[in-house]
Structures are given as structure tokens and as C-alpha cells.
Write a structure and sequence with these properties.
globular, single chain, Rossmann fold, alpha/beta, 3-stranded mixed beta sheet, about 30% helix
């Protein structure tokens, strides 16, 4: 196990149903393997249910509710996809406020597939260059983002209009998870260096 993310606490923010299982587990494993501390955050305590495309997947224990999660306790965020997951999550006010606070604090945020849907709700994509499931491209453009059909996009502060904070990592679909996982461990490792010096 690598220790590049030692001391880095990563919030995986999801709804309690409809998460694309592989889009949760692959980044989770990448963070864990790099020595980070992933934690599952959802609107309700208990379990969060996943999907394997159209079939029911496994259920996973929720570590904190979105109302309990404090932005100052986390170093980075991952938003897995799944069609139903962000459609529900974007209606959860504590989740949206948590994301706004994380981005406002300059902490890296990563989203894959339909995950950026919740970022739209928080007004967090304006001026950003992002990718996503192609079905979200109109929504993202209408929210002020520049949408690109690429496997991965890393948008750093000031890359677009200079009004956004921190790094935003977006992935297009589950087939692009290898590149997405490499990107989050690399970018989150930069957070580790910041944590170590503060």
C-alpha cells in the first residue's frame, strides 16, 4: 500500500440509493490503497444502495449524514455517478452546502459520470472546463461550464475565468475510471503536502 495519501480524509458524498457501484468502489479503493481515509456521506444514516447499471448492487454503511459532515474535517471530495444518485443528492441542502464550502475552501472535488449534477445545483461549475456523462452536457453548459467530450479533465483554479476555487476533476463514464483514479490520487496527494505543512 502506498502512503501518498496518508492523513488525507476524503468525503465520498452520495444519495442513499442509485449510486453506480463501480464509480464508488474504484475511487474508494484507489484512495484506500494510497493510504487515504475514505468516508461515505449520505443524507440519511444507515446504508447506501448501489446499482450495477440497471441491476441492484450492494449496500454500504454510511459513516456520516450530510448534516453531520463538517467541511473543515475533510481534505477532498469524490462524487460518484449513477443516474438516480445525483438526481436525489442535488435536492439535499446539507450536501449542496457541504460542496459549496469545500470548493470555497479550495479543496479538490472529483466527480464522474452523472456526479457533476450536484455541482450544478451548488453553482460550482460556472467558468470551469469539465467532462461528464454526455447526457449532462446541456445542463453543464447552461450552468456556465465548458463541456468537453474527454475521458478526464482536471480544471485548476484560474484555468477558465479565475472565479472558481481549487481543483475540479471530472470523468466521463465508468470506462474512464482508471484515468480518473490516477488523477484523484495524484491531485489529492498535493493536498497531503498542504496538510503536512499546516
Amino acid at each position: 500500500m502506498s502512503s501518498s495519501l496518508q492523513g488525507v480524509r476524503v468525503a465520498f458524498v452520495v444519495a442513499n440509493e442509485g449510486i453506480e457501484q463501480v464509480e464508488l468502489l474504484a475511487p474508494w479503493r484507489a484512495v484506500l490503497d494510497a493510504g487515504g481515509r475514505p468516508e461515505l456521506i449520505a443524507p440519511k444514516p444507515g446504508l447506501a444502495g448501489t446499482m450495477r447499471h440497471l441491476d441492484r448492487g450492494d449496500r454500504f454503511p454510511v459513516d456520516l449524514s450530510t448534516a453531520q459532515a463538517r467541511p473543515e474535517d475533510f481534505d477532498a471530495v469524490v462524487l460518484p455517478g449513477g443516474v438516480a444518485n445525483p438526481a436525489v443528492l442535488r435536492q439535499d441542502t446539507p450536501a449542496v452546502k457541504f460542496l459549496i464550502a469545500m470548493v470555497g475552501a479550495g479543496k479538490p472535488v472529483a466527480a464522474i459520470g452523472h456526479g457533476p449534477c450536484t455541482l450544478i445545483e451548488g453553482g460550482l461549475v460556472a467558468g470551469r472546463t469539465v467532462t461528464s456523462s454526455p447526457s449532462l452536457q446541456t445542463d453543464l453548459r447552461n450552468a456556465g461550464a465548458v463541456w468537453v467530450d474527454e475521458a478526464l479533465r482536471i480544471c485548476r483554479d484560474g484555468e477558465s475565468d479565475g472565479d472558481s476555487d481549487g481543483v475540479m476533476i471530472t470523468g466521463r463514464r465508468k470506462e474512464d475510471l482508471p484515468a480518473f483514479c490516477r488523477a484523484i490520487t495524484s491531485v489529492f496527494a498535493e493536498t497531503r503536502m498542504t496538510v503536512a505543512t499546516t
